[in-house]
Design brief:
It contains 16 helices and 9 strands. It is of the alpha+beta class. It has a 4-stranded antiparallel beta sheet with strand order 3-4-6-5. The protein has a 3-stranded antiparallel beta sheet with strand order 7-8-9. Strands 1-2 form a two-stranded antiparallel sheet. A hairpin with a 5-residue loop joins strand 8 (118-123) and strand 9. The relative contact order is 0.05. Pfam families: eIF-5_eIF-2B, W2. Residues 152-215, 253-283 are annotated as: Disordered.
Length: 459
Amino acid sequence: MASVINIGADNASDQFYRYKMPKLQARIEGRGNGIKTNVVNNVEVAKALERPPDYLVKFYGCELGAQTKYDKKSGTSIVNGAHDTSKLCELLETFIKKYVQCYSCGNPETVVKIRKDNIFLKCKACGAVSDVDMRHRLNTYILKNPPEDKISKAEKKVKKQEKEKGISAAIESNDKDDKKKKKKDKDGKKKKKDGDEEGSNEGSADADDEDGDGEDEVVWMTDTSEEAAKARAQEQLTAAMASIVTQGNIEAEAAERRKREEKRAAEEAAARQAEEERKYAEEEAAAKEAAELAANPVLRMRKFIAGAASPADVAAELKTVDVQGGHIGRMRVLYEALFGDLEEGVKVAGQVKARKDTLVAAGSETAMQLAQLVALEYLLGTAIPARIKEVAMVLKVLYDEDIVEEALIVGWYQKTDAAKVLGVEPEAAAAVRSVAKPLVEWLQEAESEDESDDDDDEE
């Protein structure tokens, strides 16, 4: 279990500081071009800082100039390259100062807010609003991946109280109307009794006037009947409920809007994650290819030739190849690069003729010409023995195109262990010479005839 430390280096010695976080743990994995650093407890650290975990990983990548990868499901946090824990702790402290602590009071209890492409921190302790320096590359990532807008328990409680307050106000208004109704009923009965007494004492004329006044009072006085009181209470209660329903609709629309925004943000984040994974895979493939090229001179030479290199360039590059066997070993690399991966049906002899300029440039010296014959023996006798029957045809092309001298072909044929340095077994060497025998005998006969003709000319 990771030890717990105070948030912020300035508070490290305060044993009573109440804001804590787990101490960062990192582990270096892999080796060579695939080495990477796994921030083991990145999710726990981010939770203590109340920041999304991907913000921290991305910050490390921006500061170190390295590719990063964060898996939201498993919480795996990867930074390419080997980085020790102390360096990551220094970067984490920088992140805390820039994106967590209040710039005014230093309290880490802040909330990230975004307004018009600007990022600022709102402190829950002192209420200060701190503007974040927008020059850092992490800001672009934060703007594209804003933090979730979480409603605290206190805010939820206030909203609930507002709803309850609206209902209570409606009920209270209804109670007041009932009290007014009872009072008006009592006053109405008293006035009616007084009017009857005055009518009996003052006569019919006054009684008529009193009746007229009573009618006026009925017109201008609020209806105090039980039905009217219930109607008024219902109207007020309906108005209060309508206000609550309206508020509920607004909140529902806001919730739906947040849901859509979260879905869109999740889709964009998934697309970005897929793009980062694609780039990561490409980088891994490129690193793997580079490692293979470094370990395999044949692949490296084949790629060099494929880059439209001239015969002179190929000959110069061949001299830089560092393999066992000297000239023979280097020529073996050239022959495998040129003729070792031919498609089925394509003859080696035809390709040798097509690559004449390259072979002449690489084998201008006698030792290099002999090395070509040994390389051919290795190629057709050991590397691709299925093509061993093509030995004679290839030797014929080398002779006809003046790539290798006739005497060297005969000398190679007679030295049966010439390719021993390349690991060619005696059986394979014998099989190659068996196929080459008719051509060599033909060359020897032709040489004898030429010598005979020369003798006749001298006589």
